[in-house]
Specification:
- With 477 residues, the chain is mainly α.
- The protein has a domain of 208 residues.
- 64% of the residues lie in helices and 0% in strands.
- The mean pLDDT is 87.
Length: 477
């Protein structure tokens, strides 16, 4: 009975053949088809339990084809000649006997030692190969962790430039950026590329920076790019990473989970941090959000306000509003130069989106009191803003702050009086108009008040008429 040819296994075998022997792509594909057709390699849905795919390919074709490396050929022959009882248990022995606990312990030792023999490299690559499920589909989580540890060991042992390893890490990184909110999504591949510190990873890191889905991913990419060592970004991020490594966890942080997540994430920007993951059964390695990030306060406390502003602008340009918000809020609290303009920028755009008003809300709530002249100018702008109906409360709050600023002689009283009377006379939003009507007595401009209230007293809305009558009664007292 013919075995159906499986494209995933054919592709994997073709890659191994091209990697080992001097042969064209077409010839390699034909040989791969022939191997799979034999039925000895299984199918995509049920691959054969082959211990070392690379070794098996060399064994099958080593006497028939020209090797790319004579040294590799000699190593393979020596490995074949070694008797099993003359050497300590190898990784392949643990795989063959399904001793996965011992296998993982051996992988961890390789990672800690930052060394691996050529045979160990090939065995690690074999287990890390996505085409093979050594634990079966029932243990997919353990399998994912096992393959992650194999890749960590390979990078730690200096095999990160190996075409299979590099391609695998790049695929994992791009898969994460394509679906970062998937339940099993992990930025592990991206972090491993950063930790490699190798120019071979740079093109993928630049691509990932352009597709960053969170502030933490941007920070990781910047840490790994060579230009960051010239513009100061690397030094700053590295200083923060070392600080997080030594800092004691706050006794009562507002966001305890986020603090721990940032510490773990920053540690994984280095090989030592990644190696510490081996043996921990930590499959899920999240990219932490900006909300609750200790990096915001750390940067802020060092007076690096320009850097914060640049990061907020970058996140805004990428449409990462949720990531921008906590940085924006911190800048408002610190009165960073330009923050008022930053908060007003989006609501000034014609046809702005509804969520642009969160910038205004942050400005009104978090700006230190009493408000600065720039903030009061923004309040006057907000009051006149034709915003989405659901945000009328921001306009009313801005009007209240303007009145308060005028009373404190921090804003021209005449301008606020004119604005209140204008709103009381002709504002289309009923809630904002009523708020202005309630303030007409404060204006102390009796002659103008009656003129401003004339329209309210005959308005179709009973609420506006009642507010006008109350204002007149207050005026006559």
């Amino acid at each position: 009975m013919n075995t159906p040819l499986s494209p995933t296994i054919v592709s994997a075998l073709k890659g191994l053949i091209l990697e080992t022997f001097e042969i064209s792509a077409e010839e390699a594909r034909a040989l791969a088809f022939g191997l799979v057709a034999s039925g000895d390699w299984g199918s995509d849905s049920d691959p054969a339990p082959i211990l070392d795919w690379s070794y098996r390919v060399k064994q099958e074709l080593g006497e028939k084809l020209r090797w790319r490396s004579e040294a590799e050929r000699e190593r393979f022959r020596l490995d074949q000649a070694l008797s099993k009882h003359l050497r300590p248990p190898a990784l392949s022995d643990f795989v063959q006997s399904n001793e996965w606990a011992s296998f993982r312990a051996a992988v961890r030792q390789i990672a800690l030692a930052h060394r691996a023999s050529p045979a160990e490299v090939e065995e690690l690559k074999s287990v890390a190969n996505p085409a093979w499920d050594p634990l079966g589909e029932a243990d997919s989580w353990k399998q994912q962790g096992l393959k992650m540890e194999c890749l960590i060991a390979l990078v730690a042992a200096g095999a990160g430039r190996d075409p299979f390893v590099l391609n695998r890490l790049e695929s994992l990184a791009m898969d994460y950026l394509a679906e970062p909110i998937r339940f099993d999504a992990s930025p592990f591949g991206l972090l491993a590329l950063v930790a490699m510190g190798d120019e071979a990873a740079v093109p993928t890191l630049r691509l990932a920076l352009g597709r960053a889905t969170s502030w933490s991913i941007r920070i990781a990419c910047l840490h790994g790019l060579p230009e960051s060592r010239k513009d100061g970004n690397y030094a700053l991020i590295e200083e923060f990473r070392k600080w997080m490594e030594q800092a004691n966890e706050p006794s009562g942080p507002q966001y305890p989970y986020e603090w721990k997540a940032w510490r773990l994430f920053m540690s994984c920007l280095t090989l030592d941090g990644l190696v510490r993951l081996c043996g921990q059964d930590r499959v899920r390695l999240p990219a932490p959000m900006a909300q609750g990030s200790p990096f915001i306060d750390w940067v802020s406390q060092r007076g690096l306000d320009t850097g914060l502003m640049n990061e907020a602008k970058w996140l805004r340009q990428r449409g990462l509003r949720g990531e921008e918000a906590p940085i924006r809020n911190r800048m408002v609290e610190r009165l960073v130069p330009g923050v008022v303009e930053f908060c007003m920028e989006r609501v000034r755009t014609s046809g702005h989106e509804d969520d642009a008003h969160y910038d205004v809300d942050s400005l009104l709530r978090l700006h230190p009191k009493p408000l600065s002249k720039a903030a009061l100018d923004a309040c006057a702008e907000v009051v006149r803003l034709q915003c989405h109906p659901g945000h009328y409360k921001e306009r009313i709050e801005a009007l209240r702050l303007l009145v308060e600023g005028a009373d404190l002689k921090r804003y021209p009283r005449s301008e606020v009086v004119e604005l209140v009377l204008e709103l009381a006379h002709s504002e289309p939003d009923p809630d904002v108009r009523i708020a202005a009507i309630d303030l007409v007595r404060w204006t102390a401009a009796a002659g103008k008040v009656r003129q401003a209230l004339a329209g309210a007293l005959v308005h179709d809305s009973s609420r506006i008429r009642e507010a006008g009558l109350r204002a007149l009664e207050d005026l006559d007292r």
